[in-house]
Amino acid sequence: MAEYKHGEMDITVQTKTFNGFIKATTWCVVAIAFLCLFLAVFAA
Question: What does the UniProt keyword field contain (predicted)?
Fold first, then answer.
């Protein structure tokens, strides 16, 4: 079994996945906020 050395693992894929998740979450929150604003202004 290989010896573990802290900080040597390649985490580029995990970093890209995390950044994509954060970006998608941000866009969803903005879209929901605009939807709520739209409904508040134009709902009967």
Answer: Membrane, Oxidoreductase, Transmembrane, Transmembrane helix
DSSP secondary-structure letter at 3?
P
Question: Rounded to 10 degrees, what is the CA torsion of 33, 36, 40, 44?
Answer: 160
**Tens of pLDDT, residues 16-41:** 999 999 999 999 999 999 999 999 99
CA pair distance 31, 23, nearest whole angstrom: 12
Alpha-carbon span 42 to 4, nearest angstrom: 59
pTM value surpassing 0.90: no
